[in-house]
Amino acid sequence: MRKVTSALFIALDGVVESPNLWQFDVFDEDMGNAMSIALANLDTVLLGRVTYGEWASYWPTSTDEPFATFINNTPKVVVSTTLDKVDWQNSTLLTGDLVAGVNALKQLPGRTIGVIGSPTLVLSLLQKDLLDELTLMVHPVVAGTGKRLFAGQNDLKRLKLADSRITRSGVAILTYTPA
Asked: What parts of the chain have a pLDDT lower than 70?
């Protein structure tokens, strides 16, 4: 069975929104290598509606390599209860029951299914026990404002630290699996 993973840039105060405003000064070779390894294992990407909307308007014409080629050519499954269709190449829409839809994807042949961006979807997958691995790249910054990954009321969820490293620029890359 395939597994579902997620990796998020996160500030010390839990902010995951708009990491482009606070993470590039510590994005180093160590982080680049970690991301390259993670992407090499993915053959399907799960996106939430908001991330899909932002990325579908940017990546199809982007020349930011190697990610543009990867994200444009990789099959994308967009999770939404409000969209009627998706137009970005290699995109399909997952509507209805999230648990049934993700479990069906996990049964298909292939490698890892990765959630990229999409913090609301990541939290939903975590709460519904559908996320097999969560990597948080904790940046040494307090962002102050923006969407937080664990804002509001969440059920108790115990995780086990599966891997940890510190990059040369001080980013803690922490990978958790269900306990």
From this structure: none
